[in-house]
Amino acid sequence: MTRITPPPSRIYLLRHAKALRPAPGQKDFDRALSDEGFAAAEIVAEKAVDKDYKPDLVISSTALRCRQTAEAIRRAMGPSTEFRYVDELYDATTDGYLEIISSQVSEGSVMLVGHNPTIEATLEALIGHKAYVSALPKGFPTAGLAVIDATPSGWVLTDFVKK
């Protein structure tokens, strides 16, 4: 398991919702959410609010599908949650995601809205392979939200919210 010393003491990892296939000549970066993706993002955002999951800071990739997923979170959580959009999340490595998380030393909780396979690998790096495979044997689904808490023995997956 990867060691990130709190703060933050809670990490939310949100994989963007289902996106459309790229149109001919369209850049991957510019792919929008599908109708199913828009609906799933809204459902997961509302479920998160119902469970009182409210990060101090949301950091999203600048890719269109991540920004659209983050907007569902913004609508559900209201104006008190701070949002940042970071280009590096688009094609970052797991180490890049972990570095962004660990640099948030003034926030109690942080949410990353990002891409697979990096979001999945980041969760696995935090909680360990065995815990990851046990919790998500079919992988990290689109619009899935992992809630990870710091404990004295390391990071633990507390909950997984999906549509």
UniProtKB/TrEMBL annotation:
Domain of life: Bacteria
InterPro entries to which the protein is assigned, alphabetical: His_Pase_superF_clade-1 (IPR013078), His_PPase_superfam (IPR029033)
Family matches, as Gene3D superfamilies: Phosphoglycerate mutase-like
CDD domains: HP_PGM_like
Pfam family, one: His_Phos_1
PANTHER family the UniProt entry points to: OS09G0287300 PROTEIN
Full protein name: Histidine phosphatase family protein
Organism: Rhizobium calliandrae
Taxon lineage: Bacteria, Pseudomonadati, Pseudomonadota, Alphaproteobacteria, Hyphomicrobiales
